[in-house]
Automatic annotation (TrEMBL), chains A, B:
Coiled-coil boundaries: none
Keyword match Transcription regulation: yes
Protein name per UniProt: ArsR family transcriptional regulator
Keyword Transcription in annotation: yes
Organism: Paracoccus onubensis
GO MF annotation list: DNA binding; DNA-binding transcription factor activity
NCBIfam families: HTH_metalloreg
Phylogenetic classification of the source organism: Bacteria, Pseudomonadati, Pseudomonadota, Alphaproteobacteria, Rhodobacterales
Domain HTH arsR-type: 8-102
Keywords: DNA-binding, Transcription, Transcription regulation
Amino acid sequence: MTQIVTDRKTATIEQRAKLFRGFADPSRLAILGALCGGPLVVHELVERTELSQPNVSNHLRCLLDCGLVASDRDGRFIRYRISSPRITALLNDVDALLELVAEGVEACGNYRE
Amino acid sequence: MTQIVTDRKTATIEQRAKLFRGFADPSRLAILGALCGGPLVVHELVERTELSQPNVSNHLRCLLDCGLVASDRDGRFIRYRISSPRITALLNDVDALLELVAEGVEACGNYRE
DNA sequence: GCGTCATATCATTACTCACTGATATATTAT
DNA sequence: ATAATATATCAGTGAGTAATGATATGACGC
């Protein structure tokens, strides 16, 4: 019995971790940040993020599969947009938390240097 | 001028990414989840998360340096606690977002398999 | 002091993943 | 059909990091 409960909790933790990892990359955050200002097509994202086009496409594929962005074809363009206002809300929450812990996060050298 | 503004935005993105990475690990999420129920000493965290003691200590060091948890000495025990209710709020928001995108996140095999 | 419990540190190992460069697919126009 | 534009795919490479095992530090009681 306790095992079943434990398994369920662990699964949810894995999901949370995977979702957080979706946000835990500067390139994807740059893409999401740009899309928070409104829908954009791929080459616009490439310009604004200054990332390579294949790189942007790879990240978009990940974000799309994860359901964090949605896309619509517009002629030969493909326009991407944030899939839910909850995502914008989450990014705002992180900024609010960052106001409290920015210094510590900056200083933390245990992981990453 | 535009360069300076760009630099500032990039720096913030790096901070956000680093903070997200703090949450983007099953072990750290398990620790934070356990602490959401109230303060705990290390060996209690070891029991509940079923992680090794050095592993828990390593992650606690990271979480402590990042300012996500705080600690108080209690005799030969050290009691850890969530440092701000904003952290609990953020975890709840993620769960709310997960209700929308759980399937997609689960299915996303671009990164991680 | 000595032994024990509680926690922290550190080097090593193994794994994951972001980026690049080349190429493929799709759409539109001539 | 061909060319040009827009986007996607994929293998290979390199960097970062989580977990382990051994060890070190610290606090308490005898």
